[in-house]
Amino acid sequence: MYISNIRVQNFRLLKDTTLDLEDELNNELSLLIGKNNSGKTSFIVLFEKFLRSKKFYYDDFPLSLRENILKISQETDEYSLAIRLSLTIKYGEEDNLQNLSDFIVDLDPNCNTVRISFEATINKSKLLKDLDTVTGRKNEFIKKNLSEYIQVSYYIFNEYSDFESNHRSNLIKKDASDVNNLINLKIIQANRNVTSSDAKPQDRKILSHLTTQFYNSKVKVSHDELEGINSSIINADEQLSDNYKTFFKPFLENAKSFLGLTELNVVSDLQSKEVMGSHSKITYGNNGYELPEHQNGLGYMNILYLLLNIEIEKADFEKTERDINLLFIEEPEAHTHPQLQYVFIDQITNTLKGIKGLQTFISTHSAHIVQKCNFKDIRYFRSAKDEANTEIRNFYKELQAKYADEKNAEIDKVEKKNFKFLNQYLTIESSELFFAEKIIFIEGTSEKMLLPYFISQFDTDGLGDSGDIALTSQNISILEVGANAKAFRHFLDFLEIKTLIITDLDTTEERESEAGRKIYKACSAKTGTHTSNATLRHYYKSPEFNTESFPDWMKKLKAHTHDEPSALIKVAYQDVESGYQGRSFEEAFVSANMEIIARNLNDIDGLKNKNKFDECKSDPDKFVEIMLDSKGKSGFASSILYLALSNDHLKWNPPSYIKEGLKWIAK
Fold first, then answer.
1. Where is the Endonuclease GajA/Old nuclease/RecF-like AAA domain (predicted)?
2. How far is CA 270 from CA 213, 220, 525, 626, 651, in A?
């Protein structure tokens, strides 16, 4: 038995949002990711409100509905304003249906689904009646007091149209107790009380308090596990009682005589809960070098806090024996080193294994956690294009379909390879893309070393338009992807993140090999008739080399007259600058900085034949061909960067195509 679908309506940013959990083999753990303010916390809070607090407020409604609430009248359809959480639950023959049977209304043996909805509606008649007594400032009255007029109900339904005013007779109302017998909710929130060594003394034992809580949960479940502890306490009771009798004997004799009592005793009455709560603590270290818990690092404290909480919640899940157990863990990465984040997400599945009917949801902003997770578990929160609503996208399922959705068999084969590459690359390298506001893809080592310098210079020189935020202040992920930027096309469309792809023109010309076959050899941009750059060919939809349309496509490529792939993707490559067009970053850079190179020639690495500089200085193509060591590009770039950072009076000029690209991504 498991929840296969969750739909949220009219709650904050979640105006109409669906989380798909259809995969029966993959519904135990869902990783909720997305940029800040994308609705992840709201999603968790809604469960807490419906299953615990039952309190809703004016600010819980989407902005688009608040005006309708303020203008509420007898004609208002209050059900169209309702906050709703709807669950689709699937069950099988192996499930015990004792608790679920109260929700099963379809007697068809082939039906294995029930639908339950929690609904928070405004009591319109009561609110309007009270508004009649309010003189002026009715909007303020509604904003402050709306929570008092919101009622929570539970229903069985078949279709979402059942919630419309004219179909509500199809709904079957249920009691809160029916829902509570079926579902157990636990939330480990992000605002954890983990404190450091400078905290107040009473706040320093949060882990010790949790161990007590864990102990108490075990007391309720199993006395057998605690036999050793209880036995020790009984023995301690007997010894203390004997000592008390000796110690208090004079006092007790006097008291008996004074009060006329026949017998008076002081006996030990140790309670295991009290002993754990007041006289136990967590330490770390050994061999006489134990330190108190608050002197441990916050990262370790946080992980210990999480593990103890999880153990406590597991004990409750096991004790209550509900059919559906929901565990939400918010931002486990708080205070925690990346290595511990890896360990946490690696181990969490094993830690939670064995709990019947458990579905776990972990919200995170950590690329380290995403990198270590199964990508099939990802649910991506993203704002919809045309309205103020958050969509929850099934990353793996939707992307796999996109990369396979090609009619041409040869293209389909390539796209499947692209998806395989993307899945592996993201696992290894670039999970931070999920949390970026903007992305820059670069092709090689030289760009990787020098782009941060160019970005800094761009801001320093004020090359952006008025009102643009400095690039160094923006959340931009820069990733070196080599010639594989083409593999990210559907991924970028999926994320809808503004992306700059910096690549090379890579011009070639057709030749004939000794064996008589066509080959394409690297050549200058001026004479180039083709390109070897797969990224350019992919994003600008290149025809095949042997087609009639290719020469015109290539001409437009060199002239930069192709339309950009989309409004959110720009491809930047070498253009004409001072009458010259390079085929690679190195040629474009040399062309833009030849005079500066001349003044610093002896300090630049990665070069050969420096004595031939005079014959190469007027021709960047010749410079790269004769003077740049093909194995020394990284040395060339690093020495260029070193000179810039160590000499206040030296400033390199970024090639114009990089400047234009940065200007575009800055907006």
1. 1-370
2. 17, 18, 88, 88, 77
Q: How far does CA 493 lie from the centroid of its chain? A: 18
3-state SS of 291-320?
EEHHHCCHHHHHHHHHHHHHHHHHHHHHHH
Which residue's entry shows tokens 């992807």? 481
CB 61 within 8 A of CB 284: no
CA distances from 433 to 36, 382, 536 (A): 13, 13, 22
C-alpha distances in Å from residue 203, one per residue of 132, 206, 207, 209, 632: 49, 6, 10, 10, 58
Pairing state of beta strands 358-363 and 324-330? parallel
Q: What does the pLDDT average to over 25-46?
A: 87
**Cα 520 to chain center, whole Å?**
44
Question: What is the 8-class DSSP label of residue 474?
Answer: S
Phi and psi based region of residue 481 (left: phi greater than 0; alpha: psi -120 to 50; beta: remaining): alpha
Gyration radius of the chain over CA positions: 34
Residue 413 has pLDDT above 70, yes or no: no
Q: What is the pTM of this model?
A: 0.78
DSSP tag of 332: T
pLDDT band at residue 657, thresholds of 50, 70 and 90?
Answer: very high
* pLDDT for residue 197: 40
Q: How far, CA to CA in Å, does 350 sit from each of 199, 345, 355, 389, 656? A: 33, 10, 11, 35, 53
Give the residue among 563, 593, 558, 591 at the shortest CA–CA distance from 577: 591
31 to each of 245, 336, 374, 424, how far by Cα in Å? 61, 18, 9, 18
DSSP secondary structure string for all residues of 82-119: -EEEEEEEE--TTS--TTGGGG-----TT--EEEEEEE
Amino acid, res. 211: T
Write the DSSP symbol of residue 451.
H
Strand-pairing partners, residue 330, are 363
State the Cα–Cα distance between residues 116 and 181, nearest whole angstrom. 13
283: DSSP letter = E
What torsion, rounded to 10 degrees, do the Cα atoms 494, 500, 502, 505 define? 80
Average pLDDT over residues 129-151: 94
Among residues 519, 489, 525, the alpha carbon closest in space to that of 506 is found at: 525
Write the DSSP symbol of residue 607. Answer: B
Q: How far apart are the first and last CA of the chain?
A: 49
Place of tokens 């190195």: 586
The helix/strand count (H/E) of the chain reads as 23, 23
